[in-house]
Amino acid sequence: MNSKKVISAVLLVSDGPVEHEYFEKLLTINNSELINLIDEINANFENADIGFFIKYNDFKSDIVTKSEISERHAKDVLAFISACFGIPN
User: Fold this and answer.
1) Do residues 12 and 87 lie in contact, with contact meaning Cβ atoms separated by under 8 Å?
2) For residues 72 and 66, what is the distance between their CA atoms, to the nearest angstrom?
3) Domain 3-85 is in which class?
4) Which end of the chain is more exposed for a tag (fewer CB within 10 A), N or C?
């Protein structure tokens, strides 16, 4: 299972922040490993010039749009990514 794909897909379709405990149990990893994966995902998003990133603290994570993206554009980006993952929005 590709942990980075699971994390990004779950966050993409969630209605808000996801508790880290959920990912830790699902992927059998610890919080430090999860944070490292999130940092790698954010680096991938940045390199691909995608308009969002994963905002996180020690307990939960959420996909948020970059401040320079308007709400209208953010919905378009998320719809596109959902289509790429085959996830209905």
Assistant:
1) yes
2) 13
3) mainly alpha
4) N
Residues 35, 38, 40, CA angle at the centre, nearest 5°?
115
**Three-state secondary-structure class, residue 86:** coil
Q: How far is it, in rounded angstroms, from Cα 89 to Cα 79?
A: 7
Separation CA 62–CA 23 (nearest Å): 12
* Per-residue pLDDT tens digits of the chain, which is 89 residues long: 699 999 999 999 998 999 999 999 999 999 999 999 999 999 999 999 888 899 999 999 999 988 776 666 666 767 777 777 776 65
pTM here is 0.77
